[in-house]
Specification:
Elements: H1 3-40, H2 49-67, E1 72-76, H3 84-88, E2 105-108, H4 110-119, H5 123-130, E3 134-140, E4 144-145, E5 151-161, E6 164-174, E7 180-188
Parallel strand pairs: 1-2, 1-3
Antiparallel strand pairs: 3-5, 4-5, 5-6, 6-7
Helix pairs in contact: 4-5
Length: about 190
Amino acid sequence: MDRRVWSRFRAERAAPWRTTRASLIARAGALLLTGALSSCAGHGAALSDADMSAIQRVALHELFSEREHARVLVVWSDSSDAGPVLASLDETPASTVAASSALPQVRVSRDDVHALFRDHPDGWAALFERHPGAAGLVEVGRVQPGADPRTATLVIGRSCGEHCRMAWRVAARRDASPEWRVPAVERLEVE
């Protein structure tokens, strides 16, 4: 073989290895950069089940014991199907709802609500008669971790009549103590 042909042949055989190595280095760099950017973008750390339950409890207490002065919570229990308020906000319901330490809870499913409204001409009056002291039908959204592992938010909705629907975005924070607290509640527009 001619010397020039042999040199070109060796260069062509070596190029795929160099390209592969260079592409591997580029891919690794891109993955590292993507990881760094996503950690800065506020995709919070995962919360434990105990933390999510504690956040739900403190949020429900803040809204319905401290602000609404309810005596019982009637809670939407279908985690696979959003209730009317969360559905209108395109929010995902929590897979489980923690029991409130201050208020007794009654869990109702979509079928329970449909049966109540089917069997009674005024379903809302029947709901409040059946559950005196209730604030309405409460829906709890999924807890969303914040950028800081000590913060989280969740959306809680309430239906209380034919034209009565409300929702709140509740911020939860844990400082030096292990207890979660609610520093802010934002009222959301519900259609």
